[in-house]
Write a structure and sequence with these properties.
43% of the residues lie in helices and 19% in strands. It is an alpha/beta fold and 775 residues long.
Length: 775
């Protein structure tokens, strides 16, 4: 029971418990506590020492333990910084009843706790022996000085011995306070023995853990040791999986993953649990899990099947290209009616700069789908598409899965750019790796080498771009629907420049439309004299060059600037291209042909010159094998009809014939120059001049038939750019005229021919006999 109360000065302590008959050194920094110690020492009076439950600077009653120790102040020394070093001795236990502050000092009303034996002499002796046995066993595991051990063994009072051992061994404030609060010696020793048993068990377990860890590691790897120690502690506590693995499991459970993918990812998480955190495989496993769990499992966007909205966006972003827009709108209409969840693959083929990539972006915007782009130009490794197997160091997923991660949905629009620029190598054929991805019957279980789980690509809408289909493998082409994009006629380029290119470049160069103005005639001059292309990239570069020069004049103080055809020479220099072909008069041995390239249509001149010789045929101009064969077929036709054309029938014996196609640095090939070569040879050998306002295209046979060709639209646009008035084309290509812009057809004369004699009768000047070519 508590004795009658009394009031003493009080000093709250932090992180230390003072027991009776114990000398302690205390560093006192708080002003109220310093006042309590100084006043008690000056008055030679004891004071009450009470431990705080926390580190509050101004503790309340709830922050203090209820049992403390009345102590005497032996010495006080002042340290640098204003701290007091106090030597105090505990006297006896006391219980806090109330406390208050007065005059800058804490006071406590306490009740003294009387020490009780609680057991007979024999029982206390037995308890003492039991306590010392546990203490000795524990001290062998703790770094206690020998003099401390000797001092404890020399103590005769069991209660003091229990208090001293508690102060030296427990290192737990709650347990220290539990010992201090017990007034009976027996109860104190029994409780302390229980605490010592817990400490012994913990130390034995810790020692066992340390021994197990040391057998698994090199002693010098401190970090490895600490992590292994943490792992084994978790095992002993029965926690099972690590917090990292638990986080991955939580992410896995939140995603709609099923079947093989769920099983595979679950096994990988279990494998991660078993790996050492410092093992290199741990980072590999975590990267793999991060990749798989970051895929857009089950995430989709709602399609906007509004044809009016789609047409508006396509018209805003692209001028002209009506047939292409109509085809895309038809595709969207079908998807709208069927509510198709499966994707499709569209291949946009056309020369550079005609808007293939931007059309795909516009369709994504019109549908409300996420957009991601894969640049396939120069890819020559199958692993770039399908990923590297995880057995390789630095392995990564392929571009398809990476694009799906970037898009963030299962039904994005994926643009595969420049598919015709891929090439097979010893590392595999990337085009073959795309077969599964673009096949609507297979891509629902697309398997990347890195992920090694089936992933559904069937919801994706694939847009593929290419400049030519010649290098695209037929099996891959069979999985796509091809939409051809031709070049722009001059009038469409003018509108594109006014509506899109000029405002875009003005904005990029920080210029206002009120400062720099482009007249229609100036833009036409740029289109015809400074660019020659199917698209508008070069046109945009020329406009950007003008804007840069205008920006300089703006900073030099000029208020406004209007670009006219006369000023183009000052800004852009001399014209790079001259429109002269259609203005030249008839010439012997020179005929205008039309060719198709990946950059669009081009007009090329075929020249033929006869010379005295032995009948040799010279072909120059970097001609391909097929074009050389066309030249030989043309010469054979002329030989077969020499008399009818007014040509010396023996020319092949005494005349060398040289056929040349200018721009020798540019490779040329294909059969469509057959009629052009035949016309040039007939003109050269007969001496009849050929009209220069006519251009032609068509493959010929030895019997004089003109066979159909491809790329009529691009070739016609090239002739239109050169100012040609008449185009001769195979009559079998008559249905292709619908692809040519109506504006171009209205300014040119399109003549379909079936035989070489029809061509010669229109190109060569001078009435000659009619040649009857075989049907």
């Amino acid at each position: 029971m508590a004795k009658p109360t009394q009031t003493l000065r009080m000093a709250p302590l932090r992180s230390i418990t003072v027991y009776p008959k114990m000398l302690v050194h205390l560093d006192v920094a708080r002003e109220e506590s310093q006042r309590a110690f100084l006043d008690a020492h000056a008055a030679d009076e004891p004071l009450f020492l009470l431990t705080q439950r926390n580190h509050e600077e101004n503790p309340s009653a709830a922050d203090l333990y209820s049992t403390g120790t009345v102590a005497a102040v032996k010495q006080i020394a002042k340290l640098p910084g204003g701290t007091l070093r106090v030597l105090a001795e505990g006297l006896f236990r006391a219980e806090l009843i109330d406390f208050f502050s007065e005059g800058g000092c804490h006071y406590a009303e306490i009740g003294l706790i009387e020490e009780r034996r609680g057991a007979s002499e024999n029982e206390l002796s037995a308890l003492r022996q039991m306590l010392l046995e546990r203490f000795d066993e524990l001290s062998s595991l703790l770094p206690l000085p020998p003099d401390v051990l000797a001092a404890i063994h020399s103590l005769q009072d069991e209660g003091q011995m229990a208090d001293t051992i508690a102060a030296k061994v427990l290192m737990d404030l709650e347990k220290e306070q539990a010992i201090l609060a017990l007034p009976g010696k027996r109860a104190r020793i029994e409780r302390l023995c229980l605490f010592l048993d817990e400490s012994l068990e913990r130390r034995r377990l810790q020692q066992s853990i340390e021994q197990r860890v040391r057998r698994q590691m090199d002693k010098g790897h401190r970090e490895y040791f600490l992590r292994e120690q943490e792992k084994i502690i978790r095992e002993e506590l029965g926690e099972g999986e690590s917090s990292v693995a638990a986080l991955y499991r939580e992410r896995l459970e939140s995603l709609p993953i099923q079947g093989e993918a769920l099983e595979k990812i679950g096994k990988e998480i279990s494998r991660l649990e078993r790996l050492s955190p410092s093992s290199p495989e741990t980072e590999v496993s975590r990267n793999y899990l991060d990749t798989l769990l970051s895929l857009p499992w089950g995430k989709t966007t709602e399609d906007l099947f509004d044809l009016g909205h789609a047409r508006k966006i396509l018209d805003e972003d692209h001028f002209g290209m009506e047939k292409v827009k109509e085809r895309i709108l038809e595709f969207l209409a079908v998807h709208s009616l069927t509510q198709a969840k499966r994707g499709a693959a569209l291949c946009l083929v056309g020369p550079p700069g005609v808007g293939k990539t931007s059309i795909a972006q516009s369709v994504a915007r019109a549908l409300g789908r996420n957009f991601a782009r894969l640049s396939l130009g120069g890819v020559h490794d199958e692993a770039e598409i399908r990923g590297h197997r995880r057995t390789y160091i630095g392995s990564m997923p392929g571009r398809l899965l990476t694009a799906m991660r970037q898009a963030g949905s299962m039904n994005p629009l994926l643009l595969m750019d420049e598919i015709d620029k891929m090439a097979a190598s010893h590392n595999g054929d990337p085009a073959a790796a795309l077969l599964e991805a673009l096949d609507g019957e297979q891509n629902s279980t697309f398997r990347d080498h890195y992920a090694d789980i089936p992933f559904d690509l069937s919801g994706a809408l694939f847009f593929v771009t290419a400049n030519t289909l010649e290098t695209v493998p037929p099996p891959l082409l069979d999985r796509m629907e091809v939409i051809e994009l031709g070049g722009y006629p001059e009038i469409e380029k003018l509108e594109i420049a006014k509506r899109h290119l000029v405002p875009k470049q003005l904005s990029r160069h920080g210029l206002k439309p009120s400062f720099l103005k482009f007249g229609d005639e100036a833009l036409r001059a740029i289109i015809t004299d400074h660019t020659r292309e199917a698209g508008v990239r070069a046109l945009e570069r020329e406009i950007a060059s003008l804007c840069r020069k205008a920006a300089m004049q703006r900073l030099e103080g000029k208020k406004s600037l209007r670009v006219t055809p006369k000023k183009l020479h000052e800004f852009l220099g001399a014209p790079k291209f001259l429109r002269e072909r259609g203005e030249q008069g008839p010439r012997v041995g020179s005929v205008n042909g039309l060719a198709w390239t990946a950059a669009g249509g081009e007009m090329l001149v075929v020249e033929a010159v006869p010379m005295k010789g032995s009948g040799q045929l010279l072909l120059t101009g970097n001609l391909g094998e097929v074009m050389q064969e066309s030249a030989k077929a043309a010469v054979s036709y002329i030989r077969a009809h020499a008399g009818e054309l007014g040509v010396d029938p023996e020319f092949y014996q005494n005349t060398d014939l040289h056929i040349h196609v200018p721009q020798g640095a540019t490779p040329k090939d294909g059969p469509s120059a057959g009629v052009t070569i035949a016309s040039a040879v007939a003109s050269a050998l007969s001496g009849k001049p050929a009209r220069q306002d006519i251009a032609m295209t068509g493959e010929i046979t030895l019997r004089g038939r003109v066979l159909p060709i491809g790329g009529l639209k691009e070739k016609t646009l090239a002739a239109h750019r050169q100012g040609i008035q008449t185009v001769l084309f195979p009559a079998d290509n008559l249905y292709d005229l619908g692809e040519i812009p109506e504006l171009v057809r209205g300014e040119m004369r399109m003549v379909g021919v079936k035989s070489v004699d029809e061509v010669l009768s229109r190109v060569l000047l001078g009435q000659g006999p009619q040649i009857h070519s075989a049907p």
